[in-house]
Amino acid sequence: MSSQPPDYHALCRSIWDFYDGHAAEFESRLGLRLAKPMLPPPLRGKPVAMMFVGLSPSLTARTRGWFAETFEEAQEHARLRRYVGPKTEGHTYSTYYGPLLKIAKLTDVRLGLWHQDADWLVEFTDLCHLPVKPNNKLLELFRHRPDVREHCKTTLTKELLLYQPRVVVSNGCETSECIWELWGEGGAFDPSRHSPIIERPDLGCVFHLTGFITPPRTLDVYGQVRLARELRDSLNRPQVANN
After folding, report:
1. Separation between Cα atoms, residue 130 and residue 20, nearest integer Å
2. Could you give the domains of the chain?
3. Of the N and C termini of the chain, which has fewer Cβ atoms inside 10 Å?
4. pLDDT (tens digit, 9 = 90+) per residue, 38-49?
5. What tens digit of pLDDT does each residue of 88-130 get?
6. How far apart (Å, rounded) are the C-alpha atoms in residues 112 and 155?
7. Is the dihedral of CA 123, 126, 131, 132 positive or negative?
8. CA–CA separation, 74 vs 224, rounded Å?
C-alpha cells in the first residue's frame, strides 16, 4: 500500500476551502441555497474493509445535526457520526445508513461500524461533499465544470488512499455513472461489453457499481443477496496493492 497516506486534516481542509470558496458562485448558478460541506470521517484505529460512496450528502441529515457553519464544528460532527441508532440519538440517520449496513452484514458478519464490536469497519463518504439536491443540479456541475470534476476525483482518490478499503460500493445510478466516467474504461457504460466491477490496483480497491440501495429506490431482497455475494468474492480475494 501507499507508504505515505494523505493527511486527514489537510484532506478535510481542502474539501472545506474548495466548496466554501465557490459557494456564492454555485448558489448563483444553481439557484440554490447551499449548506456547508459535510466532511469525511476520521480514522478509527481499525482496518476499513468496505466503503460506500453516495453522490452527495442528504439534505435530510441537516435535521440530524450533521451540518456546521465552521470548519472546526464540521470536523467534530464527522468525529461524532454514528450512522445508525435511535432517532433520539444525535448524529444518526438509520433510514439511509441502515440498508447499507445490512448489505455489509450480508457480505460478512465481521463487518460493522466503528462504535460496534467489529473486526473490519464499514465507512461512508460522498463523491461530492457539498449537499446539492436535486441530483441533476450536481451532475450539471460535475459534467460542465472541469474544476469540480477534478476536485471530486482528487478528493475521493485521497480518501481511498487514506482509508484503504478493499471494496468500494457506489450507491445510486448517478453515482455509478460518475465513478465509471472517472475510473472506468472510457465512454458510456455499455452493459453488453462492460462489467460493473472495476479493479483498480493503483487505488488498492475494487469498485462495485450498483443502483440504489437506500430508500426510496431500494434493491429487492434478491438483488441484495446477489450484491452481497459479489462483494464477498471481492473481499475474500487477495488485496490489490497500489504503487
Report:
1. 9
2. 46-63+93-236 (3.40.470.10)
3. C
4. 999 999 999 999
5. 787 888 999 999 999 999 999 999 999 999 999 999 999 999 8
6. 24
7. negative
8. 33
